[in-house]
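Researcher: Good morning. I'm working through a list of sequences from a screen, and I'd like to move beyond sequence-only analysis. For each chain I'm collecting a predicted structure so we can compare shapes side by side. This is the next one on the list. No need for commentary yet; just the structure.
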Amino acid sequence: MDEIRGDGIRGKTEGTATVPLSVLDLVTVGQGRTATQALRTSVDIAQLAERRGFHRYWVAEHHSMPGVASSSPAVILAHLAAHTERIRLGSGGVMLPNHAPLVIAEQFGTLEAMAPGRIDLGLGRAPGTDGATAAALRRTDRLGEGAEDFPQQLAELTRFLDDDFPDGHPYARIHAVPGPVQATAEGGVQSPARPPIWLLGSSGFSARLAGVLGLPFAFAHHFSAQNTVPALDLYRESFRPSAVLDAPYALIGVSALAADDEREARRQVLSGALSMVRLRTGRPGLVPTPEEAQAYAFSPMEREFVDSWLLNIVHGTADEVRTGLDDLAKRTGADELMITANAHGGEARLRSYELIADAYGLPAA
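Model: Good morning. Structure tokens for this chain:
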């Protein structure tokens, strides 16, 4: 097996890229396509990303959205682990308030056993869906409590992953398996390693918490661009060295799509923009085709939203996308760019990642 890239958190640059490049996958489902096809595309993209030198591949947790088939990141990651060998795989992220910490520790301990040294555990505190769906997931309508309890839930999850609850704690005799307890059992040879925790956010809360705890931080620039620089500044100002990191490390999620010509890129990203219009107006559905998006009669308010939305999507030819990504990395000081391509068909997404890899001279094999 080829050597796994990187040191677990800090990525490795390839080709002429100034920062490591990674992939964020929402497992989007377009009109006329099935979830089965979308998941097959995810495998194709993960394999392309591994082959071309992208550092990591994350899957995001979303619920009750027909056009997004990534409701179960751990299941998808297990599937991707079986079809890849070197690339890091992780959650971008698992929404911690939706789950019992012990369950997440068990799931990601299992993933670590499947793909040793390749698993990231990215955590968010948002529901990843609407309030009603969040209530169904959490079996309560007191949703604010989940977000407010996030630091305590995080501490509990970390204890389960490290198997180090103090004596006298109610959970001191409970162990997340697979996990470190197997290394201390009689005759045990299980590796005590565990997936590194990342905190995800679209505002300042997780930025500050990640800094105080000395954890790596991932910011959702792709849907909260106006908050990117303030959040990264807050993260760096709050950072305290830890056993995990001696200096801040932040990646940002970026919407980017490259095509063979600028017109085709615009045509593809308009599909994603129309999908967002429908989501924001309470009409979530499958990702529309480029033809439908071009023919759609946007209202003045919708057109204003689309124009604003597209300003934050780096799109065009491969060279134009490279320039846009380089400018964004320089402006934000991000240590890593995680690219998500939202388009109707898998072919356009695969082509985009291939073109971006070519633009940066990433390895061809």
